[in-house]
């Protein structure tokens, strides 16, 4: 049974909200004494997290991978893809797309603030202050997700980059070990810089979630690699690109024109 509430369907993808998100909203609304600005801020950050997840989902679609649904939790969003890309190039682009969305939002807010200041608005104005905080939140969201704690986006980027040299299994093992070291260090250090119990709890939950998710992905990759055959590559390349199998058994994206001339073109209908 699904406990999350469906908020709607956008670009053919169902968007859900986990009920615990409301608990977090009530909690932070409570500690700020129900400040309307704080509630609005949390809702806007929520919207930015949704856009971040759609960045992943719509990029995955370009590689022929559909998204089952997107669910927003207090610790962030999760886009459930029908399958994960095996090719390093696809994983790299899909992982980067989320933080890139936050980068674009931050740039847009920066432009907006500059326009308002140009228009004669005082830099102390509440609207400017609010935009600046939302801008910072997006920069933080983007940077936070790029921490190489697999399976966070940064960890996926690392795995994709390592896959090119080491193969997918070894790359995953390294990314998982590094990610777990970061998560453990984060969890141990938490009491030193957070004394708010609610924040501590949410961050510990995030650490536990990442630790467990990393182990599950590693197990999946081990299973997949055990049954792997070269023709299993079922991910569609974006227009103008084809998958090219390199000597180390890792698939890479290459421009179609280039690979056709060197006879490595494995793309085209009926392939894979
Ligand atoms: Zn992400």
Annotation keywords:
8 helices; globular; binds zinc ion; disordered C terminus; two-stranded antiparallel ribbon; 61% helix; four-stranded mixed β-sheet; 272 residues; 6 strands; alpha+beta
Question: What does this entry look like structurally?
Answer:
The chain starts with a strand and ends in an 11-residue tail after the last helix. Strand 1 and strand 2 (13-17) form a beta hairpin. It is 61% helix and 12% strand. Residues 229-233 and 259-272 have low confidence and may be disordered. The longest helix has 31 residues, at 88-118. Among the domains are: 147-228; 230-272, no CATH class. It is an alpha+beta fold. It has a 4-stranded mixed beta sheet with strand order 1-2-3-4, with helices on one face. Strands 5-6 form a two-stranded antiparallel ribbon. It has helices spanning 20-31, 36-62, 88-118, 126-145, 153-166, 168-193, 197-226, 256-261; strands at residues 5-10, 13-17, 67-73, 76-81, 241-245, 251-255. The protein is built from 8 helices and 6 strands, in the order E-E-H-H-E-E-H-H-H-H-H-E-E-H. The chain is globular and about 55 Å long. 33% of the residues are buried. Residues 52, 56, 98, 145, 153 line the site of zinc ion.
Largest sheet: 4 strands, mixed
End-to-end distance, in Å? 35 Å
Mean pLDDT: 80
Strand order of the largest sheet: 1-2-3-4
Q: Per DSSP, what share of the residues sits in E-state strands of 2 or more residues?
A: 5-15%
Q: Residue share in helices? A: 55-70%
Unreliable spans are 229-233, 259-272
